[in-house]
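Sample A.
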Amino acid sequence: AGNRWAMVQLVMRTDTATPQLIGLHTYPTPVQPIKVNDFGQQPLTIGAAAWLIAMIAAFATSLAGVVIAWRRKTMRRRWLWMIGSALPVVTFTMNWTTGAWQVTPVSVLVLGAAGMRSGPFMPWLFSFAIPVVALIVIVRAWRDRRAKAEAVDA
């Protein structure tokens, strides 16, 4: 078909004894339907760039929290601190194609960031979570290091 493409949507009713076709919609598109929701298809906006930076920061903070908790032999129940650092619980998700975002208060995101696509025609969903436990671990380690440095200087 050259450079002309269309996406087709069929709407079926399956709650009856026999499935019924109740809708047929076509959407013309200048790009192959499989490429409409590609990661690089839309221009990078300031909001999208900030979202990607937040994902990188959340991942780095979670990973740092896990490593610091693992290396601090004096930390009580450090395995709990490691689990808390690795599994932030409040997730922010953005649909890359539309820019729509949502907050999921009860969800777990391993190491604070994720990207997923449900299928070839579906949009990318990028998520991050604020690793509060990892931030606490990092701040406590920083305070302990500073206290030791001040004790040596005194």
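Sample B.
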Amino acid sequence: ACVSGRQDWYRTIDRLPADRPAGRIFVAGMARRSRVALSRPDEVPGNAIYVLSTQSWPPAALYAMLRSGLLDLHAAGLASTFAGGTKRFDGTFLRQVRLPLWSMVSRKLQQRLVELDTSVPVPRPQLLADVFRLKSARARRALDRTLNIETENGS
């Protein structure tokens, strides 16, 4: 097709529903660390970008969980890894990631997730431990190690 004007520059071959949900989350299909973005309603994902939407979790809270290292935590044990440490965050992998029911998350933690500053992806193992109700220090240290966080005592 010939591009004759700005409106003709890009047309997707995918069928897109007219009522796309607000607050969709884009996930890059391959990366060393998970790469996620909160989309605007008019944005269309390109190749190797997976789209997540949610009906049970508020999009801002789900986005906060993903930006806090949830995908990297699961990728450590589930994702295919290639030379150089690149991991595949594809549909098969994304369907294996688990979250507790939103109704099972405490109100205080729900508020914290919705209000969390997600402008920079920062591993937050303590937040993940709180959401998954991991109480033991050993489990929390394992999260730190998995997400490559140095602890105060150097372990």
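B remarks: Confidence is low (pLDDT under 50) at residues 150-155. The chain is about 30% helix and 10% strand.
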